Structures are given as structure tokens and as C-alpha cells.
Amino acid sequence: MELRHLRYFVAVVEEGSFTTAAEGRLHTSQPSLSRQIRDLEYEVGAELLSRSVHGVELTASGKAFLDHARLALMQVDAAVEAARRAAQPARKTLAIGFQTGHEMNWLAPAMHVLRDELPNIEVTVSSDYSPDLAEALARGRLDLAFMRVEPGYDLGYHVVDREPLIVLMPSDHRLTARQAGVIEKGFARSGQLDAMGAARQ
Predict the structure, then answer these.
(1) What's the CA gap between 201 and 136, in Å, rounded?
(2) What is the pTM of this model?
(3) Which residue has the higher pLDDT, 186 or 60?
(4) What Å distances lie between residue 183 and 170, 174, 177, CA to CA?
């Protein structure tokens, strides 16, 4: 059994047709593909695919074989990638954290800048809540984070954005009759919250 047998089998299953898999994906002839699948079934010792008016269908043995075939191919691809990385000089890394929920706002602009300014740096990205990002920065697990100011950590901050701060309450709450912006007894006044770029000092 060879890797091509697994790739051919998975392609036929995903395309649902020998002809489509052969011509549109594997760039081989349909008779050749059919022969490769028969060879695979001979090696396995069970019929994996059956033809019907609806196209190609998995047998019970084929269903059991499919996940393992996909996993084997994924592991081979991962092994190839690992070997290629090992053959290349080590690249410096920059670990960036984003506050949960704001990745879509800040990730694309940040990566655009980094690709232009640091093209040879490998960037790793993660997301978490602001206090956890501060902890990760303090412990050296992150180099930079987009977050809110967190007291108690020796971090340097730079304002990158401002967010509106809004108080939500039931429509029948007694404070809804007050003038906008006047909130009392434990509620913060409406305003803006700074979103920061933070790094270790």
C-alpha cells in the first residue's frame, strides 16, 4: 500500500465520482484510478467503495477506513512540513495577543504592518481576555498585546483605539428617566474606554 492509494481513495470519496476525481482532481485516467482503488481494496482485504445509480458510495469497511486514511495523509503532510522547517534557518518569532472579540478589528491592520516592517519574522497570534493577556505579557509568553489597561502589571501602553462605553438597563429602570450621562450609585458615567497596545517594559 502506498500513499497515492490513500490519496486516490479520499479523492474519490470527496468527489463522489471516479470520473470527476480522475479528471478534475488527480489528473489521471478513470481506468487507471479504478485499477488503483482495486489494488488498495486487495491490500486491505475488503471492498471499500460501491457504485450505484447515485454515484460512488462507501461500504461499511470504507467508512471505517476513511478517517484513518485522512489522518495518515495529514500526518504525512505534517511530517513533510516539519522536515522543511528543520532544514531552514531558525526564524525569530513575535507573539501577539488580541483581546477576545476584537481580533477582527485589529488583526488585519496589525498583520499588514508586520508584513511590511518585519518580513522575516514568524508571527504567532492568540486571543484571550484582557487580564490574561496582561499576565501572559508579564510572564514573557507574549511580546505584544492589544488590550485594555490592567493595573498591577509593569507594562508600557500606547493608545491605538477608543471604544464607546455604554450602560444597559431595563426600560423601566428608575435611572432611565435621568438625563443621558448621569448615572449614580456604582454605575460609571458613559464615555469612552481606551483600547491599548501593550508590551513589557
Answers:
(1) 13
(2) 0.45
(3) 60
(4) 14, 11, 11
